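Exam review. A common question shows you a sequence with its structure tokens and asks you to describe the fold in words. Practice with the pair below. Do the first one on your own.
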Amino acid sequence: NAESLIRFVAEIKKLRKLLEKIDADFELLINCLDNKAPLGPLI
């Protein structure tokens, strides 16, 4: 029914936000490794 579909979409959106955050953190990590910079800010 519609209610469960809406709930499902909400969950997907939450996951998407989480994935975007992880993706951003991962890019930061890659940049740090590329620059041989200390990983202080991530930890």
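Now try the second one, then compare your answer with the model answer below.
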Amino acid sequence: MMSASGRFIIAFNGEIYNYRELRENLRENGVIFHTETDTEVLLELYERKRERCLDDLNGMFAFAIWDLESRELFLARDRLGKKPLYYHHTSKTFAFASEIKALLQLPFIKTEVSPEAVKDFFFYQYIPDPKTIYKNIHKLFPGHWLRTDGCKTELGQYWDVHFDEKSHASLEVIEEGLYELIDDAVKLRMISDVPLGAFLSGGVDSSAIVGLMAGHASHPVTTCSIGFDSKRFDEVCYAKQVAQIFATDHHEFTVKDNVAGNLESITRFFDEPFADPSFVPTFFVSQLARQQVTVALAGDGGDENFAGYSKYRTDDLENRIRGLFPGALRRTVFPSLASLASLIPYQPARRARTLLNTLAVSPEQGFYLTNSFFRPEIWDRIVGAELNLHIREYDPGEVTRQYYRNAPAEDHLSRILYTDLKTYLAGDILVKVDRMSMANSLETRAPLLDYRVVEYAASIPSQLKLKGSEKKFVLKDTFRRLLPDDILYRKKMGFSVPLANWLGGELRPLAKTFFENGSSELSQFFDMAAVSQLWQMHLRGDWRFTQELWSLLVFGLWCRQWQT
């Protein structure tokens, strides 16, 4: 689209939720609009405010604007990274796209794999910004803009979240403000000229969203849930309970013997290795939702904003214990005790070893170990000599440690929440939801990731997020007026999947093509004899390396799809 002045051209992906308000403000200042779109509003706003327009936007977006007069290109990405934006930049070329595969069509872009990104992938399950799997393709950081005229390129940050400005209000005042803000975020995202519904797991976050939607909707809210054959991983009963409370039009799908037939096609949508196994149920629940609606609201962001994951409680407790011992003692004695514990072949001893190793290191390194999905000793066993030559000294943990150290926060919990917002949320959760929903032509909106909610949550004192053993205390207490206690305070399951069963069952034939073939695609990067040993142990019932094998399988699929 071109601006009314004829000076600016925009390419835009996403939604500006508050565009009607912005449109009215511009109209009052004499702007004449020719369409009813948020794209035109964004374009006219940029013409008047340039990059300062980003402060006014509430939405999920990635866009590029070409200035025909100055011959400058301007790129921007939303605050939290809900929408992707990739670019390639050399002294002679510049290209951008919403998908890596689009850039790979350009003849001047070489598909050279980044060894560091490979290691990042295995330790995080995703590749943290700004890297991609390719050396010369980059992600624009969330909350950033880029301007280039071909000679000079400038990168700027327009937003960050601050955890060091805590509220001193009473719990009652904090909760009232939180309820009103989330309610407004839901209402704003319900503005749609196409059918709209919600994902419903029966957990606190999605249940609160559905409850608020029901209060604003003129007809039953369409809700969709995903389940598994295994009771251990199935939350459908809780979703049904919430659906009954709010009289929704509820739909369910069970993931059963349909993973193997879809895995290869599903993984293609990521364009680079991605191993969070919950992308599988996310794909199927998006597929189910798209049969009913075009837009779905989701509960993403509740755990990162309000400390809902068990790892936050565990890591916070570990840090308190860490403070009880002198650093010299922790660094010298604890690793030795951990080595002794590793000689005892029982689960409690393995847990003791993990705890001792975590306590021996700094808080930021401890949180990296909490977030890491690949044990260093297993990596050292399987990594191929050629790959190791390039990354022997590279430590993926520096990504986590740097965010922790630079966090605008004063307490440990706030620092790890900030770190997760910048890494796990942006690189894993939002990537998973965007790719799997877009694969089904479904638009997903997350009210709990409205930037106003994120900023407000950051201002809430940490002791109101983790209160004793209760995770997400302030959010649960806020929604007691809407949800029953057996939903608010039930044990959190998360979007878990029966990964070990999949690998030993319906995915076994596919896995064999990678793990029992010495010249498979994995052989470019790994010692296949060592990989095969892990696989044989899994088949014999030793499931300790399930996560590592899953990551190897997903990486092998990416190699097969994109490196041939």
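Model answer, second protein: The chain has a mean pLDDT of 95. The chain has three domains: 8-157, 171-307+415-488, 498-564. Full marks require stating both points clearly.
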